[in-house]
Amino acid sequence: MTSLPDPRTDAEIPGFLTALELPGLADIHIHFLPARMQQKVWAVFDNAAEVDGYDWPITYRFDVATRLEILRGFRIPAIPALTYPHKPGMAAWLNDWNAAFAAEHADVIHCGTLYPEEGVGDYVRQALDAGARLFKMHVQVGDFAPDSPLLAPAWEALAAAEVPVVIHVGSGPRPGRFTGPEHMRQVLADFPQLHAVIAHMGMPEYHAFADLAEDFEHVHLDTTMFATDFTNRMAPFDERYRSRLAELRERVVLGSDFPTIPYPYAHQLEALARLRLGEEWLRAVLWDNGARLLGLPARSS
């Protein structure tokens, strides 16, 4: 990897991808939200210093059109628009918004979400029938157990459809009542065909969620904020985990958390490159694995 410079600015991303002979980035963890909801989410991060003790500047606080153009400039051909509810009654409405947003933009992935409530199986199946091909769930924000019996019909539908679900279930940056690997392990035991993507590599329970990826063939780990300077201060990883990532090459997929990240997008790529796990590992993580999950074309070998 010494011949491949790490990307340090966003302007260097296209050249970095060209040097790796990649067609683009298959980022599975990008957010777009309804306008009022987006402002409320950003307000939470604006107050991070008061709540969590550290500043969280938002690097890409722009309007929708500008954010989409920035992502296209990063050579992201299929742009997720992940949403998540924090209370009952929101998920079906968000799924309608997601369908409309994807219909407005040809390169936006039709996404969906879910919450443990009566009827969740019905609206998840409706979203799947309408073309949704990526879902999101946030256990800490929603304050629910992913193995709630209410969610069983939704997990069954998603497992049967082989549609991936990005699940924030690790205990970082703030633990919740139901975060951690135990509830998720039960879900996977009940629905082993579920294509679960563990957000943020399960931070800070890195090893416990790597165990899930080893134990269940459809579990992936997304790199969102992993190994960045910002995250390493609060949730560092050890050398043994870095070695495990080499073995889990086919299960690690690029995620970023754009737009609400406290550094340039390029820093996520730099952080992964400086793990020094090899160019083939980077190709798998930055494109191959995400492309497989999202149904994008395989790169030419």
TrEMBL record:
Keywords annotated in UniProt: Lyase
Domain Amidohydrolase-related residues, every copy: 27-296
Keyword Lyase: yes
UniProt cross-references to InterPro entries, sorted A to Z: ACMSD, Amidohydro-rel, Metal_Hydrolase
Domain of life: Bacteria
Name of one Pfam family that matches: Amidohydro_2
Protein name: Amidohydrolase family protein
Organism: Brevibacterium otitidis
Phylogenetic classification of the source organism: Bacteria, Bacillati, Actinomycetota, Actinomycetes, Micrococcales
